[in-house]
Each structure stands twice: as structure tokens, then as C-alpha cells.
Design brief:
Blueprint: H1 21-46, H2 52-66, H3 73-76, H4 91-100, H5 104-117, H6 119-130, H7 133-145, H8 147-154, H9 162-175, H10 179-190, H11 195-214, E1 218-219, E2 223-224, H12 225-249, H13 271-279, H14 282-293, H15 311-319, H16 337-348, H17 361-379, H18 406-415, E3 423-426, H19 431-434, E4 439-441, E5 454-458, H20 475-485, E6 488-494, E7 497-502, E8 512-516, H21 521-527, E9 528-531, E10 533-538, E11 541-546, E12 552-557, E13 565-573, E14 582-589, E15 594-601, E16 606-613, E17 616-624, E18 631-639, E19 642-647, E20 650-656, E21 665-671, E22 675-684, H22 698-716, H23 718-740
Parallel strand pairs: 3-4, 3-5
Antiparallel strand pairs: 1-2, 5-7, 6-7, 8-22, 9-12, 10-11, 11-22, 12-21, 13-18, 13-22, 14-15, 14-21, 15-16, 16-17, 18-19, 19-20
Helix pairs in contact: 1-5, 1-7, 1-22, 5-22, 6-7, 6-9, 6-16, 7-17, 9-10, 9-16, 10-12, 11-12
Length: 741
């Protein structure tokens, strides 16, 4: 078969016509997918469900390049400390787009466009192979309904999103025998991810061996010997290039493919260790391949020769220990997705697609669409029954569906308190929204100079108390050490989210004052209740003196007991040397002798958390702090069922399980000694308060508005654009030939 000639084994493609209804239907399906998953992805971002791995990693690298802190090579090549591990020069095009629209939503909308756009070359490939636009359209619909595709779209941003589009385009050019264009798209594929070089190397090796073994000039009349050698050499060349750059730029990396972590911990290369690796998570591995093949009615097995490029990934999933490698809700399904659909198309070319079932191709595509609909209704991330955060999920870490609450909105405003030029220790869920700061990290160890200027945590989210691999300690422990060793104050809070500022001494910047101590005796008598104590009020301080060595207390009703409340109190002890003396902050209803008490034992320096119930103490130590024997400063957060305690600006402990309905009052209590409370205030979080005018995510709206309309126009006028490009190319070639003549 000569270069540029059509394969005689293939049918003539359907005549192009703007009146083809299936063309319009496929374009409409692509547009609907783009809209639905752009909105879904943006909702995940604005509800803090995107994380450092991997959206924050990409945006942080690009922002540092934009601000001159890193060079472009840290994004494209396997070097640290910018980007790590992968060889993805295709990111230069992503970076140029990000430089024009520097916001995480840009990457999320771009990823959706890339994944949905792949349906178009798949449709054109189906028209060419199946001779039927309706059958090709149904295959394209199946792709857009494919649960694994939705899982890729869900999982933050990954460079693997380019693979289906470039993969289907390369296969289309291969079928059309357009050798030069095929090489160009193959280069784009190889520039996307280093693992593609292994796929090319394996596929080229199989094809070259086939030609040598059979003495045939082409594989099934489609892949010539020259094309086979091209695939092999491209794969080998890029594999050597990736490993060479890795070892040159990042000698600490054992291999650029270290990210796979495909072996079990005791893998040695022996048959017994390989067998042990295969048994590791074997049910998850089988489930992965069943979920990949079932929506396609297992048709790729019918034309397994066209699915041979998936063998490297089959090997990895067979004995891999990293469960993400065989999870339809991660990005790795892209390595096999184009070849599964390509082999499905070849199976549908048969007069009998199923070997033991009498079924025409027309019925087969109808059943395949039905299977895709069933799979999407059960497993798609848009389905309420899905296995990620829906009814079939094994955990309840994230509620379905993702929605932006008032708490999320106020948390976004809270993070806005952090200046752009500040260094920040940030929790994984908060990282993407802070990735435009000067220096942001999940850990603060190593050679960093000084503590971070700000710490951003959310004690109510998953990654506060859970270590983020490969960091051995959770952020809560890392933040606790910093808060204990440096002078941090609460710059702002929103529900369970906190921003601490180094040297911050004023009141939280993001909060609404709910209650102050009264400023007059009349206010005091009207708002406060006292029992078993005499009291005086002067100069903004409350002095309690127990009567007859019995507990004395004073309290006032909270303005909004259902909201998150930050309570601040400075306690000064009159007789700190008395070991039996204690004083603290009351949470609850001391008038009914049923309340919670946070207090400091002056002699021991122990901060304790206790419940006083009808004269019975349930005492629990929540921290240690050796303070001045005369005073202590407490800041207590009441949010849901948690109480956080700080002393003199240092976080000293936490207690959980406090029933929030019982916390209706705040106040002070003392036993056996006098105590003075100053700055006794309560501040209500703005978590449930929508800002004036509402919250408008302009960066997401701009990204969607700038990227999606041109993409739709490109789809609609693709035929005309292709014809114009071909005419221009023909004119230039003819003009060049005339000049040479």
C-alpha cells in the first residue's frame, strides 16, 4: 500500500454532508458532556474536594513559573522542587493557556474539553470502519457514557487527559494511511506522558516481530512495515530520552517510572514474589477490568489483536500494589481506553460480533448503548448510586452531590485573608485555592528558613488528621508543633477552618462579634446570671469570688448557640499557689449544675477539660502547658461536636464529642479562690452567612466562557475548517512545486 493511498480492505467513508443527523447528535452530546462535567468539576473545586495531588501540584508549579520563582523546565521535565516525576513537554501548551487565564478552573475546564473532544475523532473513525454513521454515533455515545471516562474527569487535573484525544486521532490517521500526520500526532502522544513510550515500544516490537515472522509487508493490511519500525523507534527513543533526562536532572530518582510503585513491598523478581503481587488486591484488579470491558460488552476480546497495546498496563495492574492503578475513578484508565474502543470498532465490523451468539452488528451496538446506560446509571460520578461518593460508596468521606455551601464560601473568603506574597503551610484540601501564594507546602520540614507566615487548616476535613503520602505525619501534628513553638494568633476562622498568622495578636479578621461583656451594671444584671459567688464589674473585667468555698460562676446566653463560636478569655488567678484551686471557662448551663469546664491547674500547668454533672466530675486532661502561675489566655472554638483550646497563643490540646446542644451559655467559674476574667468575648463564625450580593465564582465563569464557546464553534465548523486547511495546504504545495520548477 503506497503512502497516502486508502486501505483497500476498508470501506469508503460516508459522504460528508451537513445534513447528516448523526453528526449533529454527536456534537450535541459532546456539548452536553462538556457543560455537565465543567459544572461538576467546578463544583468540586469550590467545595474544596480538589486537592494538592494533582490539581494543586500543577497550578502551584505554573504560578511559580509565572512569578519567576521557577523555570519552565520544572514543569516539563523530571526535576524538583517544582514539578516532580513525569516527562510531559505537552504541558508547555497548557502553561501558555494558564498564563492567559491563571486560575485552577482553567485546568478543570480544559480537561473536560479534552476528554469530550475525543468523541469526535472516535465518531469519524467509526464512520470509516463501520460504514454507518448511526453505528459510529452510538459508539461515540458509549464513550461519553463510559464510567471510567467520568472517573478521569472527576480526579482533579492530569496530563493523561490528552491521551484519548490524541490516541483516537492517531488511530484515525493510521486507518487513513496518512503517514506524516500520524507521526506528528504520535509525537504529541509521546510528549504527553513518559509511559506512552512503553506502549509505543511494546506495540512496535510486536509489529516488527510479526512482520519478520510472517514475512508480510503489513499487519492486517493496515500497518506497514515502515510504520511498525517508526512506532518502535519512537517508543525506544522517547524512553531513552525520559530516563536520560531523569538521571541527569534528578539523580536522586531511581527511575522516571518510580511513580508506578507497581511492586509489593517484598517484591524481589522471583516467581513467588510475582505470584504474591498478583494476589495483592486481586479482587480490585478483576473488578477494574470487568468495569472497563462490561460497558463494551467485552467486544475488545473478540478483536484482541488490536487491543495488544494494553498489555503493558495489564501487566502493571496484575501485580501492582497501588490501588489507584486499577481504579476507574483515577486517571490511569486513559492508557488503555483508546485501544479498547478501537478493538470494539473492529469487532463491530464483523457480520457476527459475538462468536457464540447470533447477533447482527446493529443489535450489538444497541445492546452496547444499553449496557453503557446501565453502567453510567450505577457507576458514573454524576449518578447518586456511584461507588465514589454515592449510594454504592464504601465510605462517607464526601457527600453526594458536590455542592458549594455557605461554609465553603466563607472558607474561600477566609483563605483570601492570606497575602499573595506570604508563605503558607496548607492542608491538602485547601492547597489548590492557595497555590498562587509565594510559597505553599503540605509540610514544613527540611531546609526551609523559618516558620511559615500563615497556617491554613480545616479540622473538619479528611486530611487534617490523615497523613498525605509520602509525608509521614498528618498536617494536624505538623501544625501543632509550629503553634507550640512560635507566636501564632487566629487571623480568621470559618466553621472548622482556621488561618493562623505568625505574630497575629488582634481579633480574628473574619468573624462577626456576637457577644461582649456588658458595659454597665444594668446590662450585667440583665444579661448575666451568678450563683454561689459574689462579683464585681469594673473597667471591662469580671471578678468572681466563691462563697463558702463552693463553686462560683457567672454566665450569659449565647446569641446564636447553633453557630460556630470562638470564645476568648484571659484568666488571672489571685492565689495561684493553692494546689486545690482551679478556674476556667464555662460552656453550658451552670445554673442547672450541668456544664463543661475548660480550666488550668495553676500549680501543675495542666489544661483540663471536665464535665460537671450534678456534682460529679468527669475529668480529662487534654494538654500540658507550663504557663505563668498568674494568668492564662484561652481561645475555645465550639463547632459541631469539637472543642479546640489554645493557651497564650499556643494550641495545647483538643477534645471531641461535646454535645453542642448543651452549650448554650458561656461564662466563668471558680472554686476555692478568686478569679478575674478580662476580654471575655464570644465571636460568631460567618460560616452560615452569605456575603452581600452572594458569592460569584468569577474565575470559573471566565474560564468556562473563554474556553467552551470556541470549542463548540470548532466542532460545528470542523468540516469547513478541514476543507479550508486542505485547500490552503494544497495551494502552498503547488506554489512551492511551481517555484522549484
Amino acid at each position: 500500500m503506497q503512502r497516502g493511498q486508502r486501505n483497500p480492505r476498508l470501506p469508503e467513508p460516508p459522504a460528508k454532508s451537513t445534513g447528516n443527523p448523526w453528526r449533529s447528535r454527536v456534537i450535541l452530546a459532546i456539548v452536553l458532556y462538556t457543560f455537565a462535567f465543567s459544572v461538576y468539576s467546578l463544583l468540586r473545586y469550590y467545595s474544596f474536594r480538589t486537592v494538592y495531588f494533582d490539581l494543586g501540584l500543577y497550578t502551584y508549579s505554573m504560578n511559580r513559573i509565572l512569578h519567576g520563582a521557577e523555570g519552565l523546565e520544572t514543569l516539563l521535565l523530571p526535576s524538583t522542587p517544582g514539578h516532580v516525576g513525569h516527562v510531559s513537554p505537552i504541558l508547555i501548551f497548557v502553561y501558555l493557556l494558564y498564563a492567559a487565564l491563571p486560575s485552577p478552573p482553567t485546568l478543570l475546564v480544559l480537561q473536560t474539553i479534552l476528554l469530550s473532544a475525543a468523541a469526535w475523532p472516535l465518531f469519524r473513525l467509526g464512520e470509516l470502519l463501520l460504514e454507518r454513521s448511526d453505528h459510529a454515533g452510538i459508539v461515540a455515545f458509549t464513550y461519553l457514557l463510559y464510567p471510567a471516562l467520568h472517573g478521569i474527569n472527576r480526579f482533579d487535573f492530569h496530563v493523561e487527559a490528552f491521551l484519548p484525544l490524541f490516541g483516537f486521532e492517531a488511530l484515525l490517521l493510521l486507518v487513513r494511511a496518512q503517514y506524516r500526520a500520524f507521526v506528528v500526532v504520535s509525537l504529541l502522544l509521546l510528549l504527553t506522558h513518559e509511559f506512552v513510550s512503553i506502549i509505543f515500544l511494546w506495540s512496535g516490537l510486536v509489529l516488527v516481530v510479526y512482520h519478520g515472522w510472517t514475512k508480510k509487508e503489513s499487519f492486517r493490511g493496515l500497518v506497514s512495515k515502515r510504520t511498525s519500525w517508526t512506532i518502535l523507534l519512537l517508543g525506544a527513543g522517547f524512553l531513552i530520552l525520559a530516563e536520560g533526562l531523569n538521571r541527569w536532572l534528578t539523580p536522586s530518582h531511581a527511575s522516571v517510572f518510580g511513580w508506578l510503585t507497581i511492586t509489593t513491598s517484598d517484591y524481589t523478581g522471583s516467581l513467588s514474589s510475582i505470584y504474591a503481587g498478583i494476589l495483592d488486591h486481586w479482587t480490585l484488579k478483576i473488578r477494574f477490568w470487568l468495569l472497563m470491558l462490561a460497558p463494551l460488552l467485552f467486544l475488545p476480546l473478540r478483536e484482541w489483536r488490536w487491543a495488544l497495546p494494553i498489555v503493558p498496563w495489564v501487566a502493571i495492574t496484575s501485580y501492582g500494589s497501588n490501588t489507584l492503578l486499577y481504579d476507574i475513578y483515577s486517571q490511569y484508565a486513559t492508557f488503555v481506553l483508546p485501544f479498547l474502543f478501537f478493538s470494539t470498532l473492529w469487532a463491530l465490523r464483523r457480520t457476527q460480533p459475538f462468536p457464540f451468539v447470533s447477533m447482527t452488528p446493529r443489535r450489538a451496538v444497541v445492546f452496547m448503548l444499553a449496557a453503557a446506560l446501565v453502567a453510567a446509571s450505577l457507576l458514573s460520578v454524576l449518578s447518586p448510586a456511584n461507588a465514589w461518593d454515592g449510594a454504592l460508596a464504601s465510605t462517607e468521606a464526601q457527600a453526594y452531590p458536590p455542592s458549594v455551601t455557605a461554609l465553603d464560601q466563607s472558607t474561600a473568603r477566609l483563605l483570601g485573608l492570606i497575602p499573595a506574597n506570604a508563605s503558607v503551610l496548607a492542608q491538602e484540601e485547601l492547597f489548590p485555592q492557595l497555590s498562587d501564594r509565594r510559597e505553599v507546602a503540605l509540610d514544613w520540614s527540611g531546609s526551609r528558613s523559618g516558620p511559615p507566615q500563615y497556617i491554613a487548616v480545616d479540622i473538619g476535613r479528611t486530611w487534617y488528621a490523615t497523613p498525605v503520602p509520602p509525608i509521614p505525619r498528618p498536617l494536624g501534628a505538623i501544625a501543632s508543633d509550629l503553634l507550640a513553638n512560635d507566636s501564632y494568633g487566629i487571623a480568621g476562622f470559618s466553621g472548622t477552618a482556621f488561618v493562623y498568622g505568625l505574630g497575629w495578636s488582634g481579633p480574628p479578621a473574619l468573624s462577626v462579634r456576637a457577644l461582649d461583656l456588658p458595659r454597665s451594671a444594668a446590662d450585667l444584671s440583665r444579661n448575666w446570671t451568678f450563683a454561689n459567688a459574689s462579683w464585681t464589674w469594673s473597667l471591662g473585667t469580671l471578678n468572681l469570688s466563691p462563697v463558702a468555698s463552693e463553686i462560683g460562676f457567672g454566665s450569659s446566653l449565647l446569641a446564636s448557640p447553633a453557630d460556630s463560636v470562638l470564645l476568648t478569655a484571659d484568666m488571672h488567678f489571685a492565689n495561684a499557689s493553692t494546689t486545690t484551686a482551679w478556674s476556667g471557662v464555662v460552656l453550658g448551663l451552670p445554673g442547672s449544675l450541668d456544664f463543661w469546664l475548660l480550666y488550668l491547674e495553676p500549680a501543675s500547668g495542666q489544661v483540663r477539660f471536665a464535665r460537671f454533672l450534678s456534682g460529679l466530675w468527669n475529668d480529662k486532661e487534654i494538654g500540658m502547658y507550663t504557663a505563668s502561675a498568674a494568668a492564662v489566655h484561652l481561645q475555645v472554638l465550639i463547632s459541631g461536636e469539637s472543642v479546640q483550646v489554645w493557651a497564650d497563643g499556643y494550641r495545647v490540646g483538643a477534645a471531641y464529642g461535646v454535645p453542642s446542644p448543651s452549650i448554650q451559655r458561656i461564662g466563668g467559674a471558680s472554686f476555692s479562690q478568686n478569679v478575674t476574667f478580662s476580654s471575655l468575648t464570644a465571636e460568631e463564625s460567618v460560616a452560615d452567612r452569605v456575603p452581600p450580593g452572594g458569592y460569584i465564582p468569577w474565575d470559573g465563569i471566565v474560564a468556562f466562557s473563554v474556553l467552551v464557546p470556541p470549542f463548540i464553534l470548532l466542532l460545528v465548523f470542523e468540516t469547513q475548517l478541514q476543507a479550508g486547511t486542505h485547500a490552503a495546504w494544497s495551494f502552498l504545495r503547488g506554489h512551492g512545486q511551481r517555484r522549484r520548477g
